[in-house]
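Why should sequence recovery work at all? Because a backbone constrains its sequence more than one might expect. Tight turns favour small or flexible residues, buried strands favour hydrophobic ones, and helices have their own preferences. The token representation captures these environments compactly. In the example below, the structure is given first.
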């Protein structure tokens, strides 16, 4: 009976033209060991998060630092957070949606040793279960303002002149 079921599965995959098992990963049995239960994510926090895989694209993937930009009320009550991935490659600084973040802008930023680029065009929503370890908080208001401006620029939203100052 097992051989018949395996054969049917193989025939099903051939009919699709690809094997869907290759593109999915089984979920871990328990997520409790993956998150820091003593810390709620806050706006401006930097966490290391698992962003999944995005083969053949320039979208950031794997475990990497992210900036939390969702509001604190949502962060406290929702199962998801809005994040912007970061990279150590200081590429295309002239783009309005790229912002450089220096280590001195991050309180408790011992893990953020090199200047990094915040990629506002890759803003995404992830589960809190994807957050791995806390890395620090953006303590510099000017740096957080530049990140917010990059997000507004990415979505072509306008800010009043008083808000930009």
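From this structural description, the recovered sequence reads:
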């Amino acid at each position: 009976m097992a051989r018949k079921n395996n054969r049917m599965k193989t025939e099903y995959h051939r009919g699709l033209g690809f094997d869907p098992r290759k593109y999915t990963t089984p979920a871990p049995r328990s997520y409790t060991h993956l998150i820091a239960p003593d810390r709620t994510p806050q706006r401006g926090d930097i966490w290391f998060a698992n962003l999944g895989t995005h083969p053949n694209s320039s979208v950031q993937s794997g475990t990497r630092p992210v900036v939390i930009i969702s509001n604190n009320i949502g962060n406290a009550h929702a199962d998801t957070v809005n994040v912007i991935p970061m990279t150590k490659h200081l590429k295309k600084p002239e783009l309005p949606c790229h912002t450089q973040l220096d280590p001195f802008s991050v309180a408790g930023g011992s893990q953020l040793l090199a200047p990094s680029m915040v990629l506002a065009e890759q803003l995404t929503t992830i589960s809190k279960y994807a957050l791995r370890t806390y890395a620090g908080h953006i303590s510099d208001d000017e740096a957080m303002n530049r990140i917010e401006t990059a997000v507004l620029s990415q979505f072509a939203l306008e800010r009043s002149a008083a808000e930009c100052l």
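A few observations help interpret the result. The CA atoms of residues 59 and 122 lie 7 Å apart.
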